[in-house]
Amino acid sequence: MTLRPGPSDAGLLEREGVMVPRAFVVAENRRDTRDTVTLELVAVDGDPLEFAAGQFTMLSGFGAGEVPISISGDPAHPEVLQHTIRNVGGVTRTLAHAAPGTALGIRGPYGHGWKVADGRGGDVVFVAGGIGLAPLRPAILEVCADRASYGQVRLLYGSRTPEDILFTSDLHVWAREHDIVVEEIVDAGTLGWRGHVGLVTQLVARGGFDPARTLALVCGPEVMMRYAAQALHDRGVSPPRIRLSMERNMKCGVGLCGHCQLRELFLCIDGPVLGYDRLAPLMARAEL
């Protein structure tokens, strides 16, 4: 594996705090779905962790390990840090069961964010799949706080089932109070579900936005993002205006270990948010 030339490992590690977690305490553990929770965390030292929408942290449960988790809270209120976590393994199981008062470690924030302000004066389309709504939530909240600066705003959200839909109260508030068109679609409907059934790319094809002045932000499983980005491009959205949040097995967060390498990119420092103009040739090859 070839790592990018740059500062020595020792030089990076000497930077204050780069590999040392800060102590945070769980203030609230809120269950969102059967396997997903949102943790509200406050810093033990009282200093808020400033972040940009789309960035992630390395979140650790002491004695369990460390995982990269996108921040799902409001950038305007960094004094309460929110992480939405799906219970899928050993470390995430420990984090998902962390009770109020539990001490956790945080490094970061890391990576490049959505830069949603680039969409001011035009339309914004959010395309989310499953827990991919969590990394998009800070960007949506940023748009809500400055709603008059944007044109049409749409959230196209796909889930496995109605029971897997995240942030249901937020969805209603965004639609009712902030004039965001929220369209939901599920892979499999259940009794009483009256919404769309199918793939989120079907909602992209329905339109409702001006491609020439649209900023599209996409997050979800990689296969979903590949097809959603292509559908947005087919609708006429320029590739640099289609931004995706990529996910790899990040370990260090600072470009040292190479676990998150995607050809010439290190997603922890070059991403996780990247333009489709850079990602299209990389996503065309499975398992790259």
From TrEMBL:
<protein>
    <submittedName>
        <fullName>FAD/NAD(P)-binding protein</fullName>
    </submittedName>
</protein>
<dbReference type="InterPro" id="IPR017938">
    <property type="entry name" value="Riboflavin_synthase-like_b-brl"/>
</dbReference>
<dbReference type="Pfam" id="PF10418">
    <property type="entry name" value="DHODB_Fe-S_bind"/>
</dbReference>
<dbReference type="InterPro" id="IPR050353">
    <property type="entry name" value="PyrK_electron_transfer"/>
</dbReference>
<dbReference type="InterPro" id="IPR012165">
    <property type="entry name" value="Cyt_c3_hydrogenase_gsu"/>
</dbReference>
<dbReference type="InterPro" id="IPR017927">
    <property type="entry name" value="FAD-bd_FR_type"/>
</dbReference>
<dbReference type="InterPro" id="IPR019480">
    <property type="entry name" value="Dihydroorotate_DH_Fe-S-bd"/>
</dbReference>
<dbReference type="InterPro" id="IPR001433">
    <property type="entry name" value="OxRdtase_FAD/NAD-bd"/>
</dbReference>
<dbReference type="Pfam" id="PF00175">
    <property type="entry name" value="NAD_binding_1"/>
</dbReference>
<dbReference type="InterPro" id="IPR039261">
    <property type="entry name" value="FNR_nucleotide-bd"/>
</dbReference>
<feature type="domain" description="FAD-binding FR-type">
    <location>
        <begin position="19"/>
        <end position="116"/>
    </location>
</feature>
